[in-house]
Specification:
Number of helices of chain B: 0
Strand content of chain A: over 45%
Largest sheet of chain A: 7 strands, mixed
Number of helices of chain A: 0
Oligomer: heterodimer
Order of helices and strands of chain B: EEEEEEEEEEE
Helix content of chain B: under 10%
Distance between the termini of chain A: 35 Å
Structural class of chain B: mainly beta
Structural class of chain A: mainly beta
Chain lengths: 112, 110
């Protein structure tokens, strides 16, 4: 069963805490992405990675960090520097940077 | 700055109707225009996509119309069904960066 998995489905963050969102794909895609979705808004790009051990900032990277140590995994850390982290976070992957992007089911992050 | 403007924000049609969602863009370098469908609490799923070398593309009940000179493209859903009730996003890109519209919430009533 090929696809993109994200975990957890819901995540709660306390003040000053860093949290990490998981994204795994078994599509053998080279490129992976993280988007943030707020109510009534389109998706905004946080980070993207074209290949292993390489990643680039998107439009709203401040307060976030990523790593790409394995082709199939692209975890996102929401740091305490992100002052408004409540949102729906979506991971996507594509065969290449100019190929169709496929999305995971998302993680909803809430602040306690 | 919103690079892709989508309208309407919400839309209600009766079953069998033909909802039309419109998008406009400014950057003439964009060369890929996908539409995504999203159900509540789920990730967006690719519905249909078009490149600017064609003016129309059909896949099942979904049609994209593309007007390069006007820098506009639209999604038509033929014979709409209650199961089509979802949020629809248009996007435009050149390379990796998908620029999304803000979405249209569609409700198809029985």
């Amino acid at each position: 069963d090929g696809g993109i998995t994200q975990s957890p489905k819901y995540l709660f963050r306390k003040e000053g805490q860093n949290v990490t969102l998981s994204c795994e794909q078994n599509l053998n895609h080279d490129a992976m992405y993280w988007y943030r979705q707020d109510p009534g808004q389109g998706l905004r790009l946080i980070y993207y990675s074209q290949i292993v051990n390489d990643f680039q900032k998107g439009d709203i990277a401040e307060g976030y960090s990523v790593s790409r140590e394995k082709k199939e995994s692209f975890p996102l850390t929401v740091t305490s520097a992100q002052k408004n982290p409540t949102a729906f976070y979506l991971c996507a992957s594509s065969a290449g940077l100019e190929e169709t992007q496929y999305f995971g089911p998302g993680t909803r992050l809430l602040v306690l | 700055q919103q690079q892709v403007k989508q309208s309407p924000q919400s839309l209600i049609v009766q079953k069998g109707g033909i909802p039309i969602i419109n998008c406009a863009y400014e950057n003439t370098a964009f060369d890929y225009f996908p539409w995504y469908q999203q159900f509540p609490g789920k990730g967006p799923a690719l519905l249909i996509a078009i490149r600017p070398d064609v003016s129309e593309k059909k896949e099942g009940r979904f049609t994209i119309s593309f007007n390069k000179s006007a820098k506009q493209f639209s999604l038509h859903i033929m014979d709409s069904q209650p199961g089509d009730s979802a949020t629809y996003f248009c996007a435009a890109s050149k390379g990796y960066a998908l620029n999304f519209g803000k979405g249209t919430s569609l409700l198809v009533t029985p």
